[in-house]
Amino acid sequence: MTVYETDVPGVGKKYELERRGGERLVVLVHHDGKRELFRRPDDDSDSEKLLDVDGPNARKLGSILEGAYFQPVEADSPGVPLGESIIDWTTVEEESPLVGHTLRDVDLEERTGGTLVALQRGTHTMGNPDSDTRLEAGDVLVVVGSRNSQEAVADLVRP
Amino acid sequence: MSVLVQTGAMLLLVAVAGSLADRFGQSVIPAYLAAGVVLGPYPPTELFGFPTTFTPDEAAVTLFHELGLVLLLFFLGLHVDLADVFADARRVLSAGGIDLVVNGGLGVLLGVAFGYDPVSTLVIAGVVYISSSAIITKSLLDVGWIANPESDPILGTLVVEDLVIAVYLTLLSAVVLGGGTVEGVAVSLAKGFGFLAVVAAVGWYGTDYVERAVTTERDELLLLRVLAVTVLVAGLAVQFDISEAVAAFFVGGALAQTDEKDRIEHIMSPARDLFAALFFVAVGLHADVRAIGDALPLLVAAIVASVAGKLASGYLSGRVYGLTERRSARVGAALVTRGEFSLVLASLAMSADAVANGVAEFAIAYTLVMALLGTTLTRYEGRIAGLVGRHTDATTQSSAAS
């Protein structure tokens, strides 16, 4: 996308963004922080003003457009980004082969590459659980690791 | 009356005049000017039976007047960016050149045709030539053309005009201050350009130094430093018989080179708006409308000829930029507006003996009419185009204006 920048003396700066089909978006950044957004459908048409916003709101809008302001959360995988890693929750079902084994036996880190940071049992959360802890049905493993590690954990827990 | 009451009353009148103009979608500059004319000691001295003569403290008015003039030119200098001209030199200089030749030439012809002396003719040419950057930019924002291609030739033409003003003012003030003899003019020209060379050299080679001198974290200190430097340099210039306006222009130009340009603009704008408004009122206060009688034929001829002139030169400039006929016509319509610089010239003409009587009043009346005509042409361009039946591109609708 081509962006043209021009000074508008006494007003501020004008940015024109060229879009497909000859459409242009024109952003006018005033010296006082006000921003105006215009749209011109094609070369022959006049610009229509779409909105004007003040500085703080323009920045908020900008970061939303950029995808940096709100992190979209996917319903089926509530992950939080930690660089390459994510934190994921995996429930140990009743039929899981891990039920009854200690964490030392399971050796999750060696087998999946993920790190068990907490174990949730009912309303209780054990941070950095002891390796003698025996897994029970309904436990939730909170694991930090790459997506591959998270999949390996899910495979391991699955009956 | 105390100075405070007088100033307060003056500000109130400025505020009322500005609000009224804004209510009718007009520029505030002619409104301030008209307020000054009505309140001044010359006719009209009453309105609907009420006496309207208002004589504020002359020293205070002079100070407002001077500060307004200095700040107007300072901002002009701050905005002039040679990079803007050279970024698209061919088209910008063509548009600016057409504008200068057609409208400046028209001004000279008018002065000569009405038998004015060379100095007065030079003033008339300037008044007729220079479009109003302030009012036109505001109109472009109001009607939404700012986001259209026609804004390029319009703004390009204004940039060239701003550059020409610097040279023109230096020349004119040298001629006016030179006292009419060839020798006097030569001396004051040399002094003028010498002083400017010094300011320009400091601005150009001493950017780092200038920047360090004005830069400060605190906004109020930045405002004070910039104001102090500008007013002081302008004042010194007057001591050397150089126009304060030209000096202020170059101080603005020097500060425009620094990284603080945008901040200075932001911080200084309210000061400029205040003093510029008072400047316009002060120009009106000093205008004797009776003097327009002698210049009436010139006024009528100038209005007719220069509307046609700007429409034609603007249209040609639009075509140079490869715009459609409709958009090119808009370039002309927008540029019809005259404003602050024609008034700067009016104020210069008032104080100079070398300029014929009535020229200042001509400039004031002319600016009033042209500011109103220009903004009206811009605002109702859609309807006018419809009436004239020149809908060359039928899809074009002034949607942003509605």
TrEMBL record, chain A:
Q: What is this protein called?
A: Potassium transporter
Q: Gene3D superfamilies attached here?
A: Regulator of K+ conductance, C-terminal domain (3.30.70.1450)
Residue intervals of the RCK C-terminal domain:
73-159
Q: Organism's domain of life?
A: Archaea
Per the record, the GO terms for biological process are: potassium ion transport
What the entry lists under InterPro entries is as follows: AAE_transporter, KhtT, KhtT-like_N, RCK_C, RCK_C_sf
> Its Gene Ontology molecular function terms?
monoatomic cation transmembrane transporter activity
Q: What is the lineage of its organism?
A: Archaea, Methanobacteriati, Methanobacteriota, Stenosarchaea group, Halobacteria
UniProtKB/TrEMBL annotation, chain B:
Give the transmembrane ranges. Answer: 59-80, 92-116, 122-141, 153-177, 189-210, 222-240, 295-316
Answer yes or no on keyword Signal: no
Query: Which Gene Ontology terms cover its molecular function?
Result: antiporter activity
Q: Which domain of life is it from?
A: Archaea
What stretch or stretches form a coiled coil here?
Answer: none
Q: Which family does it belong to?
A: Belongs to the monovalent cation:proton antiporter 2 (CPA2) transporter (TC 2.A.37) family.
GO CC terms: membrane
Keyword terms, alphabetized: Membrane, Transmembrane, Transmembrane helix, Transport
Where found in the cell?
Membrane
A Pfam family it matches: Na_H_Exchanger
> Whose protein is this, by species?
Halocalculus aciditolerans
Q: Where is the Cation/H+ exchanger transmembrane domain?
A: 12-378
Query: What membrane topology is annotated for this entry?
Result: Multi-pass membrane protein
Keyword Amino-acid biosynthesis (UniProt)? no
One GO process term, biological-process aspect: proton transmembrane transport
Instruction: Return the protein name.
Output: Potassium transporter
